[in-house]
TrEMBL record:
<dbReference type="GO" id="GO:0046872">
    <property type="term" value="F:metal ion binding"/>
</dbReference>
<feature type="binding site">
    <location>
        <position position="365"/>
    </location>
    <ligand>
        <name>Mn(2+)</name>
    </ligand>
</feature>
<keyword id="KW-0464">Manganese</keyword>
<feature type="binding site">
    <location>
        <position position="97"/>
    </location>
    <ligand>
        <name>Mn(2+)</name>
    </ligand>
</feature>
<dbReference type="InterPro" id="IPR036264">
    <property type="entry name" value="Bact_exopeptidase_dim_dom"/>
</dbReference>
<dbReference type="InterPro" id="IPR002933">
    <property type="entry name" value="Peptidase_M20"/>
</dbReference>
<dbReference type="GO" id="GO:0047980">
    <property type="term" value="F:hippurate hydrolase activity"/>
</dbReference>
<keyword id="KW-0479">Metal-binding</keyword>
<dbReference type="InterPro" id="IPR017439">
    <property type="entry name" value="Amidohydrolase"/>
</dbReference>
<dbReference type="Pfam" id="PF01546">
    <property type="entry name" value="Peptidase_M20"/>
</dbReference>
<feature type="binding site">
    <location>
        <position position="95"/>
    </location>
    <ligand>
        <name>Mn(2+)</name>
    </ligand>
</feature>
<feature type="binding site">
    <location>
        <position position="131"/>
    </location>
    <ligand>
        <name>Mn(2+)</name>
    </ligand>
</feature>
<keyword id="KW-0378">Hydrolase</keyword>
<feature type="binding site">
    <location>
        <position position="158"/>
    </location>
    <ligand>
        <name>Mn(2+)</name>
    </ligand>
</feature>
<protein>
    <submittedName>
        <fullName>Hippurate hydrolase</fullName>
        <ecNumber>3.5.1.32</ecNumber>
    </submittedName>
</protein>
Length: 404
């Protein structure tokens, strides 16, 4: 099976990979996408939510189908050895957002060039700061829904090393978990490391809290429930002779059910208070707990998901398999809520063609992750057929919403 690409798509992908940018700093990235989409006939609006942009192709009255891709990269040093490896120290597209953008632009361009394209509108949302969990919210707050027509369906795809290139996977119903990010800060006057008894130590507090937090799922969540509590970072700037005057602990929580989420949040609050008291720090004064971001779980409309899987199988002869929900998260769920439309989110295999399903290395979010070269063409084709199916009404049942 041959999967065509616009001749510029591989170069765009490599340019995006070479020049990654962190959340809310994606000025060059947004500029590249705006230039390409404008050239392909889309009306582009930049600066939504800071660095976000939206692009609309208007072919007259009809359905409105939207798709989202992410602009940002990760604070990670790349070690793939690729000829087009990141040229930005300590930043890389280890989550495949560069491929998502190139595939979305390529699919949109292929449709824009078709004289027989069904009437309707294609809406592309290029979102900043997905990795921070706050980019979608920023775009919504900045009036995204007033800039673009209201979609009948919102499409999103993501690479996955857990499937081989040429295989698509998705979930009917709950697809991704909710995510909460909390920040715990502890402050003290500081002091000399040669006098450890002269006052509270924020680093000792942070270390004790980190150990206790990793017991929440094993001891405070029932074995048949699903949750993750992680500490992705501890910051305590200091010097060899200085007891750090401040320590900040970032806590990330993933859950599917609201009652489990609330139970975990309550337990984290209790542990922070208890560890503060044990460290000789006053909760509310010396120690503060703030709720940084909340990302709702991603829900796939079952009917749209099943119809899309059938489209991929029939039009591309491509496997589109059903898988259980994942404890990853994505703030595209906030765009779905803002638009008030059904949505479907699927994964594009990026592993060695013909490989097995399941965990493999290097995985996403690691310094050696790089999608197989065949993935770009597969993702472009998968998104193109999804957008076309949306315009053709093939994703909607008898009660489906067709745009006006």
């Amino acid at each position: 099976m041959t999967l065509p690409l616009p001749d510029w798509a591989p170069a765009l992908y490599q340019a995006l990979h070479r020049g990654p940018e962190l959340g809310f700093q994606e000025h060059r990235t947004a500029g590249l996408l705006a230039e390409v989409l404008g050239r392909e006939g889309f009306t582009v609006t930049r600066g939504i939510g800071g660095t976000g942009l939206a692009a609309v192709l208007d072919r007259g009255p009809g359905p409105v189908v939207a798709a989202r891709a992410e602009l940002d990269a990760l604070p990670l040093q790349e070690r793939t050895g690729a000829a087009f490896a990141s040229e930005v120290d300590g930043v890389t597209h280890a989550c495949g957002h560069d491929l998502h953008m190139a595939a979305l632009a390529g699919a949109a361009a292929q449709l824009a060039s078709r004289p027989d394209l069904p009437p309707g509108r294609i809406v592309l949302v290029l979102q900043p700061a997905e990795e921070l969990g706050s980019g979608a919210a920023r775009m919504v707050e900045d009036g995204l829904a007033d800039v673009v027509p209201r979609p009948d369906v919102l499409l999103s795809q993501h690479v996955s090393a857990m499937a081989p290139a040429g295989v698509l996977v998705s979930t009917s119903g709950t697809a991704l978990a909710a995510a909460d990010t909390l920040v715990v800060t502890a402050r003290a006057p500081g002091g000399h490391t040669g006098q450890p008894d002269s006052g509270p130590d924020p680093v000792l507090f942070a270390a004790g809290l980190t150990q206790r937090l990793h017991t929440v799922v094993g001891r405070d969540v029932a074995p048949f429930e699903q949750a993750v509590v992680s500490v992705p970072g501890i910051a305590a700037p200091s010097a060899p002779g200085l007891r750090a005057p401040r320590a900040a602990v970032t806590v990330n929580i993933r859950t599917f059910e609201e009652r489990v989420r609330q139970a975990v949040l309550d337990r984290v609050d209790a542990l922070v208070r208890a560890e503060a008291a044990a460290a000789g720090l006053a909760f509310g004064d010396d120690v503060q707990l703030t709720h940084d971001t909340h990302v709702p779980r991603v829900e796939n409309d079952a009917q749209v998901r099943d119809r899309l899987a059938a489209v991929h199988r029939e039009r591309l002869s491509m496997g589109h398999l059903s898988v259980p929900p994942a404890l990853a998260s994505d703030d595209v769920s906030l765009l779905v809520r803002a638009f008030g439309c059904p949505a479907v989110y699927w994964f594009v295999g990026s592993g060695e063609p013909g490989g097995r399903l399941g965990p493999v290395r290097p995985a996403c979010h690691t310094d050696a992750y790089l999608p197989h070269p065949a993935t770009l063409a597969v993702a472009t084709a998968a998104m193109r057929e999804a957008l076309l199916a949306g315009l053709s009404g093939d994703l909607y049942g008898p009660a489906g919403r067709a745009g006006s």
